[in-house]
């Protein structure tokens, strides 16, 4: 029975596995079973009839299994090759696409960078021009701080220093001669007063005045002093008299000939008669101008 089961199982497996082999019919299968039963019933040695067939079946089975394995391997290889080929096909396409994208991006970047490079070159040229045109600060400062001095420059500098110094003159107005009784008596009674003839004989005490221009004269300084001290005065212009210069007729209500025929106003510069009218004498730094009332054409005051 064991052999019978073995044969049955082997036949079933052979039927399932063998695809291209010869398939037994039902009659053959029944005939085979009867033969096997007859063999078992007999006491003779059992010699399997279909050993050759079984061997062939086993061999064919093995072949089929190997062929299946080979086919599977080949199928797997083919599938792998197909997948590789598809991947390889996709890769160059992707690489081509990427390369095209890179080319386009590089072109765009180059197109963008070109103007920037131009701008850089223009900026560099501008900076070079600036560097060439701009002087060195150190040298400029050195030149400013340490210029070469010549004799002429030193003289000009000295003159500038002299010009910057302020210049002054001193002026005063006096009536010392009228303090004498004989001269004072010659005045009219309204003028015989300290208001017009002060006891100390000083109408304007010595006062300093700055020389404002090189055209300042004894008359311009006198005019400033009289106005500043609010002293009454009267004069004739240079074109109104025979002297060709300003002539002062009266100061502080004291006029020429009020104390005699030879009386009037005269001025001196540094104690001397300048020999010019007051509007013709140009003052100098340190001049001392004194206006005095004389009763003898300057002899009584040393002029």
Can you put this structure into words, describing what you see?
It is built from seven helices and seven strands. It is an alpha+beta fold and 303 residues long. It has a four-stranded mixed beta sheet, with helices on one face. Strands 3-4-5 form a three-stranded antiparallel beta sheet, with no helix packed on it. Strand 4 (247-251) and strand 5 form a beta hairpin. The longest helix is centred in the first third of the chain and has 83 residues, at 51-133.
Q: Biggest sheet: strands side by side, in what order?
A: 2-1-7-6
**What is the helix tally?**
7
Low-pLDDT residue intervals, each spanning 5 or more residues: 19-23, 42-49, 131-135, 137-144
Strand content: 5-15%
- What percentage of residues falls in helices of 4 or more residues? 40-55%
Compute the gyration radius: what is it?
73 Å
Please tally the β strands and state the result.
7
Largest sheet: 4 strands, mixed
What's the structural blueprint in terms of helices and strands?
Blueprint (H helix, E strand, L loop, with lengths): L1 H16 L8 H16 L9 H83 L3 H9 L5 H14 L3 E7 L6 H4 L17 E9 L7 H11 L4 E4 L10 E5 L2 E2 L8 E6 L18 E7 L9
Parallel strand pairs: 1-7
Antiparallel strand pairs: 1-2, 3-4, 4-5, 6-7
Quick tags:
single chain, 4-stranded mixed β-sheet, 13% strand
Give a brief description:
The chain has 303 residues and is α+β, with helices and mostly antiparallel strands.
